[in-house]
Write a structure and sequence with these properties.
There is one protein chain. By secondary structure, the chain is mainly alpha-helical. It has one domain (2-307): ABC transporter involved in vitamin B12 uptake, BtuC (Orthogonal Bundle). Helix content is 70%, strand content 5%. It contains eleven helices and six strands. The strands form three sheets. A two-stranded antiparallel ribbon has the order 1-6. The chain has a two-stranded antiparallel ribbon with strand order 2-3. A hairpin with a 5-residue loop joins strand 4 and strand 5. The radius of gyration is 20 Å and the shape is globular. The model has no long low-confidence stretch (mean pLDDT 93).
Length: 321
Amino acid sequence: MSIYLIQTYNGITLGAVYALVALGYTLVYGIIELINFAHGDVFMFGTVIALIVVQILGLTAPVSNVLLLLLLIIALIVVSTVVAAALNVSIEFLAYRPLRKAPRLAPLIAAIGVSFIIENFVQLWRGAGFTAFPDIFPSTALDHLDFGFFTMPATFDTGFGPTIRVVDIFIIVAALGLMIGVDRVIRTTKLGRGMRATAQDPEAAALMGVNINRTISLTFLIGGGLAGAAGVLYELNVGQVWFFTGFQLGLIAFTAAVLGGIGNIRGAVLGGFVIGLIQSLVIGSIDNGVAWSDAIVFAILVLILVFRPSGLLGQQVPDKV
């Protein structure tokens, strides 16, 4: 039983990152029905930027002072978010916008091409091997967090299975906060109404005063920003930077978006957590589970889509006529 509790805990942490990246996929598909295959590589670029900032600051060990640690992580998230958002907007402007009225295969091929461009650029720039991300967040039984007037351990032994790390709680809370924020923006703000109107009928939205190009660009901006933030949270958990990370994790995140219901914000969140849990439980349940985890995830996806083609919560994209 303890191994299942441990893997459930790990799955929730991993699923939070999947959900953030899946939101970017579902936002773009929901508004222009484009599978942005470069989105995973935007996430990867965010991890690289976070690593560069940490290296510039010369950080190589855990930061125990909580105030300093929070300021550092906020700075990493802000820088990575801004760079990833700018990259995503640039991709939309240079590669997708000129092909918006082209046959649907053209922007799809362009997205694949952009993905390879980013991957090869990072490979030539940073090398093909793995780079360790410094463990800046105290995360072992020997580490402590200093609040100024008291200290607390960086891990807690529950006594019935998983050892809870404060860094994982931070990752989950931060990811959920970002997800709730995006959901509120989409549902309650003028920008969100413009995005929903553009997704439903771009011509009618334009007649009602919605700037279509700006709305689509802002959608890419939000999606890229989420990918950049997810990159920082991913490194706090996994701690490895690799030029091919975006392809692997991006594919899983896109699967999460499809599983939950493509175009559905809450569906993407649900799909991310479901896939994170499935992967972790498979890894902890069978021999050589790491090798089998992706295969089982996609097998379950196929079975779910056979019986519910629109995903768990249903698609939210307009029917084009």
